[in-house]
Amino acid sequence: MKTKCSIVSIYAVVFKLIAINKTTLGLIGHSRNIGHHSSILYASSPDVTASELKSSLSSLAHSTKRGFSANAAEKRSAQKICEELSKLNPTPEPASPFYEQTQDVENSNLTLCGKWTLLYTDAPDITSLEGQGGILPSAKLGRIGQECVPPFIKNVIEWQRPDWAKSLPFSGSDDSRIFQKVVCEATSNPDQPLKVDLKLVGLEVLGSDDSKSGGPAQILEKNPLELKGFLKAPFGSFRVLYLDEDMRIIKTVQNFLAVNIREEALF
Hints:
Helix content is 24%, strand content 33%. By secondary structure, the protein is of the alpha+beta class. The protein has one domain.
């Protein structure tokens, strides 16, 4: 009975988090150990480079735990750095792979395509998730990010087994994972090369559990859930402020920031 309740709770939160994805576009991941810098740099003179601004932004993200603990002053600092980096954006058409018609594009090697995890966000629906326990007390929030493979962008949320459940039977292992993927169709066009429009097309829920100890993750690994319909619902949009080889900064339609780091492997 406990196992069944846990599975039901996980399914329930998957559908509840669709609303969260609509606000934040699912752009959070684990912070990297990127060190700490005491000063914040702005591009107030030509001497301040994009590399220095990125380092300052990374330091701020680390010290505020991805923005989860950022105060008002720190949020303003992050906004200022992102604004300055947007002036140094080296990629004029980052969304070109999502153009509705194929185009010849400069800097085509620098695009949104790939896997991204969050370095920093100020989206309140996400920064309030960690440590609350109210949405899903039977699971722990793990990585959250995006898989961008045209024509789809998948917003991914990873759930882990909570520490208190280690002694429970059929709860999986520390390596057990459940992934919720909200699947969106993404489109852009050369007239607005920094903007990406999204339409909701489906939901995927799958598990990963090599322990063979049972539990929801193992059940979903063997029986992944995929829901797709014929209708496509509008799901918001975002604008790319900055994109280079390893960092992406976007602003959602709700004016929330998300700073992301490119990863080699997908979820």
